[in-house]
Amino acid sequence: MRKALFLLFLIPFAALSQQKPNVQEQYYINEDGKLYWHGKKPVYLFISETPDGKNLHRMESEVHDEYTNPMYLDTEGINYIRSNWAADSMLKQLQPRFELLFEVYRDSEAPKTTVTFEESPRYKDAEGNQFYGQGLKFKSKAVDKQSGVQKTFYSIDNNNFLTFTNDQELNQDKEYDVKVYSADNTGNVEPIQMYQFRVDLTSPVSNYTVRNDRSGMVFSPRTYIVLQSGDASSGLNRIGYKIDDGPEKIFSDKINLTNLTDGNHTIKYYAYDNVKNKEEDKTIEFYMDKTVPVVEATIVGDQYQNRGRVFVSTRTKVKLTAEDNKAGVKTIKYSIDGADAETYYEPFILDKTGGNHVITYYAVDKVNNRFDGKLEESNLSRSSLDIDMKAPEISYEFAGSQYHSRDTAFVTSNSEIALAALDGESGVKDLGYKINGGTGQQYTGPIKLEEEGFYSIDFYGTDQVNNRNTKSFFFVVDNTGPKVEHILSMEPVGNIMLDEKGGEPISVYSKGVKLFLGATDNVVDTDKVFYSLNGGKELEYTRPVKIDTPGLVTYKVRATDKLGNSTSTEEIEIFVK
What share of the chain is helix, strand, coil (3-state, %, to 5)? Predict the structure, then answer.
């Protein structure tokens, strides 16, 4: 029986780091029967006369002993183990003669993995930091020139490596650390590819500032809006806005409102960051007031018209009344014969010294829209019957706890603020007010304010013919008593524990220790400090209190401010020895 040649390749195993899945260095036979051999592994040749590999004999080379025991494959890809000439089973050489070749493929090169981050906006800042937005998927594709890719492994945020089988969704707002590598079927492992980036799923946060003439949310044509926005991650890309559902515009330095019509308007604004996260729309609702006040000038008192001329007496008065469609009138001013303008408070006497006189006047509303007018003697009205020229007298006063320092009044939440209006002609029609520029309210009785803080009240009185008088005042509501301080004149000499006090340690002081008291108030002045010893009568503190009574001593301290707000300490215990 002819002996068959049988080759056996021995495969050693190598362990990878514990941080990686175990990938063995081994041989691999693919579906086509091709044998792939790890490039760093030795090769030993065995010969056998049977196909089942029995009676193996390891082959050694006498000629090339130093290179064949073991031998190594020298060429990446296909290598051949050769026999000079092919022969049949009768040992007869075949014609034409040809070599017998045993193929084996050397594989020493690791796969190459291509990693992509797709389906998400991306941005890289000036420092090279990478950001991705919503929908990010991590994909990988590995190729190997020889035995083929065995597996691709990945780790997210330094967790254990897993086998990559499907695209990975990275859908948390955070910093990511992704590591990827692949191994081929003979155990060649490529170096780890590392990616660090931030997934930013949070939209920017924007706000707005109103600049120039305004009264609350009533704007003038000179008003403009400045938008500000910030983004804590990928950074701000742009701020967009729409006026009254118009087309989107990109904010640059300001939103000019000059071309808007009178009436209600809205501005919706929002910001985009550099990975296309869009802020939810925010809305500014306002009223555009482009209408100037309406001013009526009338002559009240003696007047006489003759042959196109109007004559008035020194008792004649000029009355100016103004109304505004939305913001309200802020001021009326007038000038007689080009003199310096004066603020109009009540009808004024036109001093008739002879000749014609010209009165110019203007009214400004609370968003500084201005109406200019002129009153000439040639067009004066002669109607003057029973005209009420004087606005109501209005006043305010505080009732209850109050304290005045310089120009500021201080009250408590129990104090009452009373408004009053008096009109000796047509009578009072309305008495109203606004607190801190808020919504106007009708006055129905004394006002109380619960919350502490600074307040301003604008109030007005209107008579039955709509003459209006306005005033304002400010004050502070303070309900908090002073902060009490108490200090003993010496350090304790030790502690004592009394059974009747539950065994808790009590500081011990020497006889004659003095108690110093004080109080400070953040808003108004401290008024008085009181104390009581051992549950006795409360006394006003005027000088340090000397404690001579030995034994357990208790004291309490109370302080009041100029409004009567009071603060008391808990009962304090010391032991005097």
Answer: 0, 50, 50
Contact 135, 163 (CB under 8 A): no
DSSP 214-261: EETTEE-TT-EEEEEEE-SSS-EEEEEEEETT---EE-SS-EE-TTPP
pTM comes to: 0.54
Which CA distances in Å does 297 have to 321, 343, 360, 383? Answer: 7, 15, 10, 12
Whole-number Å distance between alpha carbons of 266 and 32: 73
Identify the band that residue 4 occupies on the pLDDT scale cut at 50, 70 and 90: very low
Sequence-separated (6 or more) residues with CB below 8 Å from residue 218: 286, 287, 289, 326, 327, 366, 367
Return the pLDDT at 9: 36
- CA dist., res. 438 & res. 455, Å (int): 11
Instruction: Give the whole-angstrom CA distance, residue 328 versus residue 362.
Output: 14
Q: How far is CA 174 from CA 74, 78, 109, 206, 275, in A?
A: 48, 48, 36, 22, 14
Other Cβ atoms less than 10 A from the Cβ of 217: the count is 11
Q: Collect all residues with Cβ–Cβ distance below 8 Å to 439 and sequence separation of at least 6.
A: none
Residues in the chain: 577
* DSSP tag of 338: T
